[in-house]
Specification:
This protein has one domain. Helices cover 9% and strands 30% of the residues. It contains 2 helices and 7 strands; from the N terminus they run αββαβββββ. The longest helix is centred in the first third of the chain and has 4 residues. 17% of the residues are buried.
Length: 93
């Protein structure tokens, strides 16, 4: 099951109308923040791939990037890759 669905956010056919303004805010320990529209992360609408990593090659991430790191391999630049993730929130305007 998708993380958005587990968090109670609309997905699939329920992601329409006002729900399309819903966004995901990812925050880091150093204050860095990035935003994704919920629609771009939904496989039926946008399909952007974003992963929260907690280990690399079977070992926990070190303190310079972990304990959690957001990885977005489908982005052309790594500007929305977030190290030291502290919070992920689903918000509406």
């Amino acid at each position: 099951m998708a993380a958005a669905a587990l968090a109670g956010a609309p997905t699939g056919d329920k992601l329409r109308g006002p729900a399309l303004a819903t966004f995901v805010l990812v925050e880091a320990a150093d204050g860095y923040k990035v935003v994704f529209s919920l629609a771009e992360l939904d496989s039926g609408t946008g399909g952007t791939e974003a992963y929260v990593a907690f280990e690399r090659e079977g070992k926990p991430l070190d303190d310079t990037v972990g304990p959690f790191r957001l990885v977005v391999p489908t982005d052309k630049r790594a500007a929305r890759w977030v190290r030291q993730v502290t919070r992920i929130r689903i918000r509406q305007p």
